[in-house]
Amino acid sequence: MIGGPQVIISIGQNKYNSAISHRAEYAPIMTSLVGPKDSNLTLLDIAEGTLKSAGWQSNILTGRYMLHVGDNIRNAQSAVGRKL
User: Fold this and answer.
1) Looking at the record's lineage, which domain of life comes first (predicted)?
2) Distance of CA 14 to the CA centre of its chain
């Protein structure tokens, strides 16, 4: 549409009780950054730097959860070695 890059970032997960599995599940909470044409690497640097400075996980897991489950408002653990 606008010809610029977009980065989608997982910033947390929303806990809910599944009517299918009858157990607690987690839906991802996402945000995105959109930049001007040819700003791909800049957007990635901004996203990674922001997550790291907040002490948030910057990689996505495979399997049942996108992020390590944590006991906070984001339902996601902070990055290793960081306590917020």
Assistant:
1) Eukaryota
2) 11
SS3 8: strand
pTM of the model: 0.74
Domain ranges of the chain: 1-77
Q: Which amino acid is at 1?
A: M
Neighbours of 57 (CB within 10 A): 23
Query: Amino acid identity, residue 44?
Result: L
Burial of residue 51 (number of CB atoms within 10 Å: 0-12, 13-18, 19+): middle
Give tens-digit pLDDT for 26-36: 999 999 999 99
Tens digits of per-residue pLDDT, 35-81?
999 999 999 999 999 999 988 988 888 888 888 888 888 888 877 55
Q: Rounded CA gap, 16 and 2, in Å?
A: 35
